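Run log, item B.
One chain of 583 residues. Sequence copied directly from the ordering sheet:
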Amino acid sequence: MVKTILSQVKEFKKDSLLTPACMVLEVVMEMVIPLLMAAIIDNGVEKGDMPYIYKTGAIMVGLAVFGLAAGMLGAKYAARASTGLAKNLRMAMFDNIQGFSFANIDKFSTAGLVTRLTTDVTNIQNAYQMILRMCVRAPFSMVIAMIMAFWINAKLASIYLVAVVLLGASLFFIMGKATRYFKQIFPKYDDMNASVQENVSAIRVVKAYVREGYENGRFTKASGNIYKMFSKAENILTWNAPLMQVTVYGCILAISWLGAKMIVTDALTTGQLMSLMAYCMNILMSLMMLSMIFVMVTMSTASAERIAEVIQEESTLSNPSDPIREVPDGSIVFDHVDFAYRENSGEPVLKDISLHIHAGETIGIIGGTGSAKSSLVSLVSRLYDVTGGSVSVGGINVKEYDMEQLRNQVAVVLQKNVLFSGTILENLRWGDKNATKEECVRACQMACADEFIQQLPDKYDTYIEQGGSNVSGGQKQRLCIARALLKKPKILILDDSTSAVDTATDSKIRKAFATEIPNTTKLIIAQRISSVQDADRIIVMDKGRVAAFGTHGELLETSEIYRDVYESQTGGGGDFDEEGGGR
């Protein structure tokens, strides 16, 4: 874990090294000043030697300024190193997430990833800055102060040693108790972020069902859980301050009492006593800093583990050593394919699938909810790997292709259509970043999207809000189809992606596919028979198996499932949105 986090320091190594160096210089200056202060009292004040006082005082001022400059530089370098580490950690996680397979993504919740990229990284940033500055400064200051104190008077310095041992043991016990609470806090942040994310993204549904009170309750509960955990941890940590104060004042009283007696017997000078008091404060303040470091490190350890988990996560999919970069055609072969989303998950989602689809064919896919239609097509572009058998595209196993090149030739319009913040043109060019406006318009015409775009005030320069919230479901689907067409793919997969458009528009889109992209293999998942009955062949899925495969006419004769669906949809005169369907 530590190695993973520190590997992201990268170009900020220089700043990370300069920070402790500056802290050491600052400590050295601070440690010399009490000695000079003792010299002023013993050799200047008591003897009335003003030149000596001025000279030594000037040296003290110079050392103080030098120490202040070193401290400021240390703060500057620490800030740069810690913010740089935070930047690199976010980039490392985000880059790795981009390479995740769907199986990897399924392991992490969206809210959990957001928490790791924000709250967890901020914790590491703060801890790293404190470690660079205080983790060097505090121990070094304490050790040097202890050495100087023993050099002045070993008997009185022994009081510090006892105090340090007792206080250190107490702080270690307190930190151990608090740690277990901090480790439970950050998963609670995931729950709270999930509540916020769901509420904001589904705010229209929340308001439509008047569920604001319920959502407030969810958020209050999630926020309350974090409050309770932090309260328990902080209640334990509150013992730090009283323990520290008791130790500080106890040491001051003991040194004052014993030191005064030693001054009377000429075993100690007044200046030396003042120096010992200064070193006492240095030692105990160093312990206070170390306790703060322990708190911060304790909090950040859980964050570091969560961040390292994302960075170290390896994609379940990888390119072969010598990948094929050219997809010959859009033919697809499923050869005794089995598939499960998780290993050892029991019964597979897809079972013994064998299909042979020719390049340029239009294949309809229907089946009930949970029949694994989407799982079937996700194997074509290798979003998941099969657990048994093989899938081939263009006569070549998909595992032998370079994944980027394979996916460039397989355009997928998923069930959940996603548009990004930006203009319509910018969204369309996700399909082809170099597409001209004319090519974008042509793709929209094929997807029956041009007609509504032309009615918008800014037409193709109309700004799409995040998630496409300012366009209807049907418009969003047509834009996503147009975006997929711009890829000029060898295989086009429409995963129930015309469900929000009327039957007439659906028919126009299918006719455009037949005439404009005849050589592209088209896999169309649909719930409506009317969307697939004109396909070259139709796959009927049932409980993860191919129940039937044939033309519309063949299936009406041979497949009971297909015939039942057809009759249920057409028995009333057609789909609800076809002319006559509602009569």
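Observations after the first pass:
- Residues 141 and 364 are 75 Å apart (CA to CA).
- Residues 572-583 have pLDDT under 50 and may be disordered.
Flagged for discussion on Thursday.
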